[in-house]
Every structure is written in C-alpha cells, then in structure tokens.
Design a protein that fits this description.
7-stranded mixed β-sheet, about 475 residues, alpha/beta, Aspartate Aminotransferase, domain 2, about 10% strand
C-alpha cells in the first residue's frame, strides 16, 4: 500500500472524531486496569485528573521563550530545585527539564563531550558504561561522535569495577552508572565508580531516570538503598524522570549538574540569525509547557507524604510478586533489586517467553528481555489493586506452559535448530534469512508483533550475528512506521 494518503476532502465532527479515536484506543494495552508492567506509571483517576487539568491550563504555551511565559519558567526552575533537593543537591546544583529520559541522557553525553573538548582538549571522546546501561547512551554516542566503551557486569548484574579501571583512557570524558539499571533493577556500585572517574579526571553521570523519584522515599521508608546521588563525591550529573515515579504527565525529565559551569556546556546559543538571538537549554526548540505544568502540579499535589505512601504501596506489591515468583520451582528473580523494577527468569530460558504469550492471551502486557532471557516488571501503585487477579492468571499460565505438549516441544526444537542452522550457513545466506524475520513475525493489522512472540524472542536473542539482527530490527521499524492497510 502506498505510504501517501490524501487529506480528507471535508472535516469530521468532534463527536465522530472522538468516537473513531476511542475505537482505535480500545485495542491498546489496558494500563488503566493495571495490566501493563512498563511504559505507564498510573496511580489513580484522581491524580490523572490533576495532571490533565494542569496540562490543559498550559496547553498552548511554549517554554522556548521564558520571557514570554514567566509562569512556565518559574514552574520549571522550581521542579528542578525540588528534584535537586531530593537527590542531595546544594545551593550550587542546577539543571533543566527535558522531554524524557532519552533527552536527559543525550544532554549528559553532549555536555561531557563539550566539556572534554574545552577543558582537556579531547577531540576523540570516549565514555565508559556497563552493558546494562540504557540504550539512549548508544544513541548519544551515535549522534555526538562519542565512542562507547562497554564494560561487563558481574553475576549480580552490577558493573564490574575492575573492568572500569582497565577501560579508562586519556580520551575518557564520561563514566556512567545506573540507579537502578532497567533490565534487572539492581544498583551499580556508584560510590566506587564515581571515585574511579574522579581520580581519572572524568565526569560521572548517574542514570536515575527510573529511580530518581523512588529511591529517596524507599530509603526513608527503611529499605536498604546504597548511596547514589550528589552526596557521593565524584557524581557530576544525575537524570531523573518526573514522568516515571514522579507520576507526572509525559514527557518530562530532569537533568541535574553539580554546578552551573558544567551545565553551561549543555546550552546552545546562536547570535547571528536575522530572526534574532536563538538560545535553548536542551535539544528541543519548541518545548510544550503542559508537561512542565503537570510536573509542578503533581509534586505539590502529592508532597513528601504522598510520595512516601505511593512508594510503600508499590514496594509492598513488588515484594509480594517477587516472593510469589520465587516460590514456583524453576522460576527466580535476577540479582537483588533495590526497588520496584525487577526481572523474572526461568531455568528453561524459552519458558519465560511462552509465559508472556500465555499472559497476553489473558490480557496482561509483559515486556520480554534477552541476554539473559527474562520478563520485565515495573510495579506502580495501580498494580496493588490487581495483584490477586494477576497471580491467579500467572499460576494458570505456568501450569499451561508446563503441561506436556507435542506442539510446544516441537516449537522449542525448531527454534534451537534454526539458531544452529543460521550459525552453520554461509554468512550471506543466514543474513538474508535473518532479514526475513520482520515479515515472518509481523502481526496483522495494527499489531506490531503477534500475540505468540516466543519463537521470535527465543531465536533473535541467541543469534551471534548481532549486526544482521540489528538490520532486521531496522527493517521491522521501517514496516511499523508505514500506514496500516485498510
């Protein structure tokens, strides 16, 4: 089908449009019912109404020009200041808001690159990061010409400190640690890593995008949380997403720096444009004011007591789920998660993907991970209301997957055989077959993937030709961003 479509000849009524949009939305993941374990950080409808009202109040304002909208500038600076206070900042700590965690991480890398160039004369910058660090760092490396140097994690999925020491070079401008890492929800050894970076004369960024608005409250509730914020010597920047456990509307994140001199390398200014002086604090030009307003509103609406209450609720739910998973023979939780993000694995690796398929049939959306195979869980307060129903379906899914089945046995065998065959075939043949994967695994209609995705994940995560797998994923991305048929 052609990707080109004509604009409708006539407009449609508001009611007709909204009905059509509701019909499309009906097929989406049911986050409001607590059936999604990633992507959406939902509390309840009362908080949702606050976010919607605050966003709507500043729906048309543009934070590009803070002199035109001083109210937006005030809200942004106050959100930054409150976040800095939460994360051990002092009177020198500064920052900005961004559109999300990815932009915050992009800004941290861009800042380090420009700092290294200006302060140390580094023209071929490198950054050292664990293999569990967020892919946005890879995107930043690609965009800004910074070479990523990957270090392994140990059996506990925490960054290998000895490997970090060996990976440093005169070109290292940035070292990265996660608090916590997204895949397994464990904390990198932030104090040790920051000390090494500081001794080497490099910057150190803490990616607390998922933990920045949860860990301080988890610690206050008495749970063990290792040091990770500006109280740690050597930490020079921190990212924390307000639209995650800050419960703000998407998309808004906070990027903080230890001092204004470092933040200056994030800014951009151009003074020779006939249209006037152009300056921006981050990647975006036009900056929607609605998410800024919603972040300011939710922080005042919940307050410290509200965040503590929600943290306790989410932690209790996460611990209950982890205990239930660990009680099932053959299943386990990876590492030692510090908060409400964790991953579940199985002694039969392919089994977790089959469990995800079975849970999808029951209306639950679980993210599949690989290297190692696992299912990801991000627990939010809304899950407390559905944990019993989830566990009932989970036990039923485990029983279904473990019931003897010739079809399932054949499927597992075919996946193992296909992986072996692709290793044995000539490179150009296996490359062509791998590139067919997006067409074989593509769902129908608007579906990005079929409900039965276990074969795809079971195969793609084990193939050694990672460049070919990447090309197959890019092919799938190309298909996804074409208009659906019909």
């Amino acid at each position: 089908m052609s990707p080109v479509r004509p604009l409708p000849e006539k407009g449609r009524s508001k009611d007709e449009l909204l009905d059509a949009m509701r019909a499309m939305k009906a097929r989406d993941a049911r986050w409001r019912e607590g059936r999604v374990f990633s992507l959406v950080y939902y509390v309840d409808d009362d908080l949702l109404e606050v976010l919607q009202a605050a966003s709507a109040l500043f729906f048309s304002e543009n934070a590009l020009n803070p002199t035109a909208f001083p109210s937006v500038r005030r809200m942004e600076t106050e959100v930054v200041a409150m976040t800095a206070g939460l994360l051990g900042g002092d009177e020198d700590t500064v920052g900005t808001l961004t559109s999300g965690g990815t932009e915050s991480l992009l800004m941290a890398v861009k800042t380090a690159r420009d700092w290294g160039r200006a302060e140390k004369g580094i023209t071929e910058p490198e950054m050292v990061l664990p293999v569990t660090a967020h892919p946005a760092f890879e995107k930043a490396a690609h965009y800004f010409g910074v070479r990523p140097v990957h270090i392994p994690v140990g059996p506990d999925f925490r960054a290998d400190v000895d490997a970090l020491q060996r990976a440093l070079t005169p070109n290292t401008v940035l070292v990265v640690g996660s608090a916590p890492s997204y895949p397994q929800g464990v904390m990198d050894p932030i104090p040790e890593m920051a000390a090494i970076a500081q001794a080497h004369g490099a910057l150190f960024h803490v990616d607390a995008c998922v933990g920045g608005f949860m860990l301080p409250f988890v610690r206050e509730l008495g749970y063990p949380v290792p040091p990770f914020d500006f109280r740690v010597p050597g930490v020079t920047s921190i990212s924390a997403d307000a639209h995650k456990y800050g419960y703000a509307a998407k998309g808004v994140s906070v990027i903080l720096y230890r001092d204004a001199g470092l933040r200056r390398y994030q800014f951009f200014a151009y003074t020779d444009w006939p249209g006037g002086i152009y300056a921006s604090p981050s990647m975006a030009g036009t900056r929607p004011a609605g998410p800024i307003a919603a972040a300011w509103a939710v922080m005042h609406y919940l307050g410290r007591a509200g965040y503590l209450r929600l943290a306790q609720q989410a932690m209790q739910t996460a611990q209950r789920l982890q205990a239930a998973f660990a009680a099932i023979p053959g299943l386990f939780v990876y590492g030692e998660p510090v908060m409400t993000v964790f991953a579940v694995g199985s002694r039969e690796p392919y089994e977790v993907y089959e469990l995800a398929d079975e849970m999808a049939r029951r209306g639950w959306h679980l993210d599949r991970q690989h290297r190692p195979p696992s299912l990801h869980f991000t627990i939010v307060p809304a899950h407390a209301r559905v944990v019993d129903a989830f566990l009932d379906d989970w036990h039923a899914a485990v029983a279904q997957v473990r019931r003897p089945s010739p079809r399932r046995t054949l499927e597992r065998g075919l996946v193992r055989f296909t992986a072996w065959l692709l290793r044995m075939l000539p490179a150009r043949v296996s490359r062509a077959l791998i590139r067919l994967a997006p067409k074989l695994f593509r769902g129908s209609g608007d579906e990005a993937l079929p409900h039965k995705a276990a074969p795809m994940y079971g195969l793609m995560g084990t193939l050694p030709q990672r460049e070919d797998v990447q090309e197959a994923v890019l092919d799938l991305l190309d298909q996804l961003f074409r208009p659906p048929e019909g």
